[in-house]
């Protein structure tokens, strides 16, 4: 554990993210192209399906066709999410390892193997474990959403009014988000730990973050505020440059802004996690030696 203040954590995360972009431009360009291409392909596929369904009266009145279109759009969204999650996971691992090397002290490799990032490879054990954690996190939020939806349906079937059931479902949704956010913060040290080559150690990560939920949450939220500001400014600029007659150019501009914002968010989140790991990881480092 290192004595790092919140201010040092934030400034270090922003500085390391900018340094990662400068030193790994090819990695970021490839990730940008992949995120933009998959996002654009998914949008065009879903838009074309909706346009085809909307232009045909029989398609609109046929329940089987509607279910087929909904299933196709769901598969497209799932595929796009999977590919983008994989791309962003690889990018995050590269950024984490870069940030760890940036602050590595002489002799750290021999003294603390888990603290010294392994060589950068496209698909190694660290990337696989990091990607598995991302999938587990997404699955947790999806599961919480389904639980709230099932609860709402159950309340409606039990005879509750629409307003009462909606209010109850909204309360459950807030509780589910708070619960998932708490669990995510308590297990957040696993992301830089696995990226650096460590094993997935749930109990150690949970113990290392005990009593530090608010610090971790505050750092994570404040770290991405500049990214939100940049994305907002770029969105406004894209809307100002696009004319009413060029809806296609506006859509492409917004897709570019979204892709850039996603990459900046990923890089900043990765470097912030490294600083939090340096501050709080004690048992994780000990059990990896």
Written account of the structure:
- This protein has helices at residues 6-23, 25-54, 57-61, 63-102, 108-111, 125-157, 162-186, 190-195, 202-208, 213-241, 247-280, 283-288.
- It has one domain (6-282).
- The radius of gyration is 22 Å and the shape is globular.
- Mean pLDDT is 84; it is low at 55-61 and 107-115.
- The longest helix has 40 residues, at 63-102.
- The protein is mainly alpha-helical and 289 residues long.
- It is built from twelve helices and no strands.
- It comes from Caballeronia udeis.
- Keywords: Membrane, Transmembrane, Transmembrane helix.
| Overall geometry | globular
Strand content: under 5%
Number of helices: 12
User: Structural class, please?
Assistant: mainly alpha
Order of helices and strands: HHHHHHHHHHHH
Query: Mean of the pLDDT scores?
Result: 84
Helix content: over 70%
* Largest sheet descriptor: none
Low-confidence stretches: 55-61, 107-115
> Count of DSSP E strands?
0
């Amino acid at each position: 554990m290192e004595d790092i203040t919140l201010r040092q954590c934030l400034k270090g995360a922003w500085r390391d993210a900018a340094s990662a972009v400068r030193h790994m431009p090819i990695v970021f360009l490839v990730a940008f192209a992949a995120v933009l291409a998959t996002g654009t392909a998914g949008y065009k596929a879903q838009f074309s399906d909706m346009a085809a369904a909307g232009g045909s009266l029989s398609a609109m009145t046929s329940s089987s066709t509607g279910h087929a279109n909904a299933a196709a759009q769901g598969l497209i969204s799932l595929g796009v999410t999977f590919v983008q999650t994989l791309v962003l996971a690889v990018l995050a691992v590269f950024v984490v390892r870069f940030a760890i090397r940036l602050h590595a002290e002489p002799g750290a490799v021999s003294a603390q193997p888990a603290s010294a990032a392994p060589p950068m490879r496209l698909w190694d054990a660290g990337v696989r474990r990091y990607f598995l954690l991302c999938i587990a996190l997404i699955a947790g939020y999806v599961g919480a959403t389904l639980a709230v939806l099932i609860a709402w349906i159950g309340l409606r079937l039990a005879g509750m009014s629409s307003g009462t059931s909606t209010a109850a479902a909204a309360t459950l949704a807030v509780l589910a988000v708070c619960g998932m956010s708490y669990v995510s913060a308590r297990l957040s040290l696993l992301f830089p730990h696995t990226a650096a080559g460590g094993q997935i150690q749930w109990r150690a990560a949970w113990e290392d973050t005990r009593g530090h939920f608010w610090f971790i949450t505050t750092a994570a939220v404040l770290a991405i505020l500049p990214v939100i500001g940049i994305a907002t400014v770029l969105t406004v600029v894209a809307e100002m440059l696009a004319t009413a007659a060029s809806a296609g150019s506006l859509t492409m501009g917004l897709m570019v802004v979204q892709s850039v914002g996603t990459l900046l968010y990923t890089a900043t989140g990765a470097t912030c996690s490294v600083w939090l790991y340096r501050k709080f990881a004690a048992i994780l480092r000990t059990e990896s030696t």
